[in-house]
Amino acid sequence: MTxxxxxxxxxxxxxxxxxxxxxxxxxxxxxxxxxxGFSLLxxxxxxxxxxxxxxxxxxxxxxxxNIASNPAVAFVIDDLGVGDKRTPRGIEVRGDGExxxxxxxxLAPGYGPVWVxxxxxxxxxxxxDTSPFDPPNSRxxx
Length: 142
Prior knowledge:
44% strand, mainly beta, Pnp Oxidase, Chain A, eight-stranded antiparallel sheet, 142 residues
């Protein structure tokens, strides 16, 4: 298996968080952002975003429709740290989203079969391997 594209500290941070924001682009070129849960997958080389099943629309989600027409995505995981000095830290992943038709229910309870696999191409991390106000640790990963 290939080593994780995230540093050890980034991996620990990602695994400690439960909420991120998925940004997609619709067919008209307009952005859309949605808060969502996620999972670190494939030994730290991909992110998984599931979708709950809603009684009135199943797994029909705007972000899934957007990815079907334009796979470019960004995903941000961030917070203000802990303790007395609440300082910003986080990770932005830019890459391609792939709609996977089955297996989403394995990501978390309540998810349906359809999910999105995010393959990172570029990572920006701040306040994790660097000081929160220093330039981010930015790199291409593929």
